[in-house]
Structure formats: structure tokens, C-alpha cells
Design a protein that fits this description.
The chain is 26% helix and 29% strand. It is α/β, with parallel strands linked by helices. α3 packs across α4. The longest helix has 14 residues. It is globular, with a radius of gyration of 19 Å. Bound molecules: NADP nicotinamide-adenine-dinucleotide phosphate (NAP). NADP nicotinamide-adenine-dinucleotide phosphate (NAP) binds next to α1, α3, α4 and β10.
């Protein structure tokens, strides 16, 4: 058996359960490709799984490699594949039911892999798949956002929010976004038309008649969002299922979505990056050996853009 370096957990717990160690190098099975990981994006789901928050709904066997965002190079292909060849530069949001990308190698279903944007490096590309697919599926596939519409994006400075702002602007929408005081000028740089400081102002006093609310925060923020929607509008959440009763009372629609891997949307996204319409914002790059620090930062809930682990230096 061949070995590789990986960060694994052998139990649920705090960042200290992340262990940098040798792990078996995977072998691609039917319809799978083996990817040499160059960079692995960090997402809140990583530390939520590490802490055991999802253990009742999604049981995992240990040891487990976390991390479901990657950019890298195809190293080998399994039987039943044909889309990629050794040496192709790719990115992916792999199946989160399997081992993830905090490792030198990962096997991924070919259907979850796309050619990475050519104009950016692996660290930048590794920041994209999970968060950008989530934003795309929330505001376009579910929210139906179109040119000229108005959207309120909660958590506009975060990993998902930063992509949602840029995608909404590319579509030709008017974008209102919430963030703390430190991120107000960042929101403007991203393209937000009306930034709102949630620490100073109550957004529901300032916003009226939007077609779409995109909620990446949940809780009280979600509850206070009904009144800013116009009749027939939609609240799309990725944080918590909104109340169907409240939606009906306000004459609006609601949806909770779970992102699904989608390589054709990743291909569309790569084109947008390469024509300069979309740019990942990577706030922090850390080596794979610093996965614990990456989790501590993500857990603050105040990441600007993305945190990425550099796997191959
Ligand atoms: N359902 C799905 O498929 C799916 C997919 C991806 C993510 N998610 C979930 O969606 C959430 C967001 O993910 P993410 O990757 O964007 O997280 P993230 O990068 O950690 O987001 C952090 C951002 O949230 C902002 N924020 C914190 N409190 C806020 C508030 N009260 N109002 C407005 N903004 C606030 C922070 O801005 P300030 O620093 O300025 O406060 C920060 O920029 C997470 O809970 C994640 O697990 C779900």
C-alpha cells in the first residue's frame, strides 16, 4: 500500500483532534479520478463535522479526512472515465459523504470534477467550488434572480456571500448587502450597491420591496427578513429552514437549500472567472500542517472571503 500525508480526525472534538499524519493513498475506482491536491478550501461545514454537530444526520466512520473543496492536477484515472487525463488542472466540490481534500491525494467521481479556471492559481481556484456553487444554486437555480431585480444578501462579506454579490451584479441585479463596520468598504469593492452595517442599523428599517433575500446567517436575521420582501418574492436560506407559515402570512415564498456538486455549473463559473467577471477573495492561506489554525479562524464566524490550505508548496 502507498501512503500520503493527510489531516485526519479519529474522533469528534475541538481543533486539536485534527492530526497531520500518514494515511493510505486512495486508488481511483469505477468512474473516479485520482487528483493530486494542490489547495483545499475551508468551509464552515468542515469544523461543524469535526465538532460532531452533524453526527446524528450524517454518521462518519473514523479516521476521516475533512475538506470538500479542492484544486489540483489529475494523477490517474479509473475505469469507466473519459473526460479527463493525467495532468489536467481541475477543481471540484467532492462528495461530502467520503474522505475530503486535506490530503496530498483524493479520489473524486468524474461527474464532480471540472477544468479549473485557467487565469488563476490553485490556491485561488480551491476557494471557489463549494461556496460559489452554493451562491449560484441559491440565487439563480432557486431564487430565480434576473436582471433589474433587487436582492438583499445577508453575510455578504463571507465565503458564500462574497460570491453571491459578484454573481448578482454579473446578472444585472441591484445588490444590498449586510456586514459589520469593518467590512463596509470591502462590500463596496465587491460591487454591493447599498452596504448595511448590521451593528449600527436594523436592515428592515432601511430595505423595502426586494424580490430575493439570500440568508446565509439564519436566526433573528432570517426572522426579521420577511417584511423586506415584495409580494411574491422569495427568501432563500442556506443557514436554517425558514417558516412556511411566516412566508404564507407575508405572501412570499421560502426555500432552504443544500448545495449539490455540479460540474457543469463549475464549468460556467470557471468561464466567468476567466473573463474577469468573478474573483475569489482569499483572506488567509495556510499550509496543510496548520489546519487547526484554519478551523479556529473559520469558527469565529467573521471570515472575509475564504481561507485556503496550501497542500503542495
Ligand atoms: N446549505 C448549504 O448547502 C450551505 C452551503 C455553504 C454554506 N452553508 C452555511 O452557510 C453559512 C455561511 O457560510 P460561509 O461559508 O459564507 O461562512 P463564512 O465565510 O464563515 O461567513 C462569515 C461571514 O458572516 C458574516 N456575518 C456574521 N454575522 C453576521 C450578521 N449578523 N449579519 C450579516 N453578516 C454576518 C461575517 O461578516 P462580519 O465579519 O462583517 O460580521 C463574515 O464575513 C454557514 O453556516 C455555512 O455552514 C450552507
Amino acid at each position: 500500500m502507498e501512503y500520503m500525508k493527510a489531516v485526519r480526525i479519529h474522533q469528534y472534538g475541538g481543533p486539536e483532534v485534527l492530526v497531520f499524519e500518514d494515511a493510505p493513498r486512495p486508488v481511483p475506482g469505477f468512474a473516479e479520478v485520482l487528483i493530486r491536491v494542490h489547495a483545499a478550501g475551508i468551509n464552515p461545514i468542515d469544523w461543524k463535522i469535526r465538532a460532531g454537530h452533524l453526527k446524528d444526520v450524517r454518521p462518519y466512520a473514523f479516521p476521516l479526512i475533512l475538506g470538500w473543496d479542492l484544486s489540483g492536477v489529475v494523477e490517474a484515472i479509473g475505469p469507466g472515465t473519459g473526460k479527463f487525463k493525467k495532468g489536467d488542472e481541475v477543481y471540484s466540490r467532492p462528495d461530502s459523504a467520503r474522505n475530503g481534500a486535506y490530503a496530498e491525494y483524493i479520489t473524486v467521481k468524474e461527474s464532480e470534477v471540472a477544468v479549473k479556471p485557467r487565469s488563476i492559481d490553485h490556491v485561488q481556484a480551491g476557494a471557489i467550488p463549494l461556496a460559489c456553487l452554493t451562491a449560484w444554486q441559491a440565487i439563480f437555480d432557486t431564487g430565480g434572480l434576473s436582471a433589474g431585480q433587487r436582492i438583499l444578501i445577508h453575510g455578504a462579506a463571507g465565503g458564500v456571500g462574497s460570491f453571491a454579490v459578484q454573481l448578482a451584479k454579473w446578472k444585472g441585479a441591484y445588490v444590498i448587502g449586510t456586514a459589520s463596520a469593518r467590512n463596509q468598504s470591502y462590500l463596496r469593492e465587491l460591487g454591493v450597491d447599498e452596504p448595511i452595517d448590521y451593528e449600527k442599523d436594523r436592515f428592515e428599517d432601511l430595505v423595502r420591496s426586494v424580490e430575493v433575500v439570500f440568508d446565509t446567517i439564519g436566526g433573528d436575521t432570517q426572522k426579521r427578513s420577511w417584511k423586506v420582501l415584495q409580494k411574491g418574492g422569495i427568501l432563500v436560506s442556506i443557514a436554517a429552514p425558514p417558516s412556511a407559515e411566516e412566508a404564507a402570512k407575508s405572501g412570499v415564498r421560502q426555500a432552504f437549500i443544500l448545495m449539490t456538486p455540479n460540474s457543469s455549473e463549475l464549468t460556467e463559473i470557471a468561464k466567468l472567472v476567466d473573463i474577469g467577471k468573478l474573483k475569489p477573495v482569499v483572506e488567509t492561506v495556510l499550509p496543510l500542517t496548520d489546519a487547526r489554525r484554519a478551523h479556529e479562524l473559520s469558527q469565529t464566524g467573521h471570515t472575509r472571503g475564504k481561507i485556503v490550505l496550501r497542500v503542495l508548496s
